[in-house]
Amino acid sequence: MASIPRELVDLLGADAVVAPDGDLSAWEAGVRGDRGDAAFVLRPADTDAVAAAVGCCVRHGIPFVPQSGNTGLVGGSTPDASADQAVLSVERLNRVCEIDVDNRSVRVGAGMRLSELNARLEREGLCFPVDLGADPMVGGMVATNTGGARFLRYGDVRANTLGLTVVLPDAEGTVLRLDQALRKDNTGPDWKQLFIGTSGAFGIVTECVLNVEPLPRERATAILVPRDEAAIFDLLRRLETRLGADLSAFEFMSGNAMRHALAHAPSVRNPFSDEAIPPIALLVEIARTAPAGEGEATLAEVLERTLADLWEAADEPLSDALFGPPEELWPLRHALSEGVKHAGRLFAFDLAFARTDVMRFRASMTERLATDWPELEVCDFGHVGDGGIHFNLVCHDRERCQSAGYEQALRDAVVQHAVEDFGGSFSGEHAIGRANQRYYDRYTPDVLKTLADRFSEALGLQATGAARFGHDGTDEQ
């Protein structure tokens, strides 16, 4: 176990260092069951303190894992089992929140929770539009390039980041201030992009300058039951044509996932009045930020009229439509993740495809599973409007699922089919953690790994406990 250098305590103060004999459990376990053993925990309170901590760890050869809200799902923010890695938490970097209403931007500390940020923005009629079921910290959202349920309209974190302050993992703890609140700046490489979605491997985000959007004045939602899987993207194309930028969400929910969500969260209303949950359903939302004009139709009326036209189409792509206010329909979508998590042994995949391939992959992989892994139940859902799907598998044969080599063989089979046969991504929005490092090493071209190596060498960066983006000598081809 790595010892705590006296220099660290002197630099940060005793209250910012949690020693091994303290309770480290809050920083050692993730929400998906991943856990490790930390050598100690560092809790710096500002950018200068982060720089001091990072520089000291690098000089003493102590590996560390940057950690934000610890809501990640791929083991990217927890230490390994060696007890040699420190955890560097940004949780105390939550004091900065400077809203520029005219520029529609906010400068915010990496440790601020998304819910707190939006509570402050709401007072100005604004919001940060990357919407999630969890409540992460902003730094982690940047490090993983979070997508969310309204990607279709607003894009991901990358599309909404104007600037960053970053500490490099070098012996000096070099601070990069890439924090201008500019939407247009074509004076050279956009360096901040190197730190978005790279899980802290190239640097620790301490402050962010984010684009913010006007708070929607009106929203309307419906749950659609398509004729079949083949009709899903026909419906999406027609809605995009009819509704334009007002279409903010198009979420896929499998019948299995909905059943488990309703069983786990009885307070969530079942929108299917006859209690018959369909094999697939879609949650559709439209929203607008401008107030409705006098005599103008409400969004609920617009949505109902649009769907009525689809209902009457000659090819009948729509089997049913259930209308309700957003506060009644969204809870079902947000309950899916916890529902499948509690349904049995869960094997979760965060996959992304070209939109045309999402349902093709789902059908093909489901057929393969029925033959080779019949004990697995497909409980998937996701943001199919942007090509993403959370391909979740629940195992109902505990003995087989816990057998040696089972999980790795299953994960390899699903990822291989997604990447090699459909040109998909093994990580649509969860980034790279211990769960995905194997597939980064396997599928990333050598030329890109070499580029990452050269970047790290040029800046004198040291390896942290975060994801590895260069060569590590264990690449699988």
Layout of helices and strands:
Elements: H1 6-12, E1 17-18, H2 25-28, E2 41-42, H3 47-59, E3 64-67, E4 86-89, E5 97-100, E6 105-109, H4 114-122, E7 126-127, H5 138-144, H6 151-154, E8 161-167, E9 175-178, E10 204-211, E11 213-214, E12 218-226, H7 232-243, E13 247-254, H8 255-264, E14 280-288, H9 299-311, E15 318-324, H10 326-341, E16 345-352, H11 358-372, E17 376-378, E18 381-382, E19 388-395, H12 398-401, H13 406-422, H14 434-443, H15 446-459
Parallel strand pairs: 2-4, 3-4
Antiparallel strand pairs: 1-2, 5-6, 6-10, 7-11, 8-9, 8-10, 12-14, 12-15, 13-14, 13-18, 16-19, 17-19
Helix pairs in contact: 1-3, 8-10
Task: Write structural notes for this entry.
It is a single chain. This protein is an alpha+beta fold. The chain folds into four domains: 6-89, Uridine Diphospho-n-acetylenolpyruvylglucosamine Reductase, domain 2; 97-214, Uridine Diphospho-n-acetylenolpyruvylglucosamine Reductase, domain 3, CATH 3.30.465.10; 218-333, 2-Layer Sandwich (Alpha-Beta Plaits), CATH 3.30.70.2190; 344-435, Alpha-Beta Plaits, CATH 3.30.70.2740. It contains 15 helices and 19 strands. It has helices spanning 6-12, 25-28, 47-59, 114-122, 138-144, 151-154, 232-243, 255-264, 299-311, 326-341, 358-372, 398-401, 406-422, 434-443, 446-459, and strands spanning 17-18, 41-42, 64-67, 86-89, 97-100, 105-109, 126-127, 161-167, 175-178, 204-211, 213-214, 218-226, 247-254, 280-288, 318-324, 345-352, 376-378, 381-382, 388-395. The strands form five sheets. Strands 5-6-10-8-9 form a five-stranded antiparallel sheet. β5 and β6 (105-109) form a beta hairpin. α1 (6-12) runs antiparallel to α3 and α8 (255-264) packs across α10 (326-341). The chain is globular, with a radius of gyration of 23 Å. The model has no long low-confidence stretch (mean pLDDT 91).
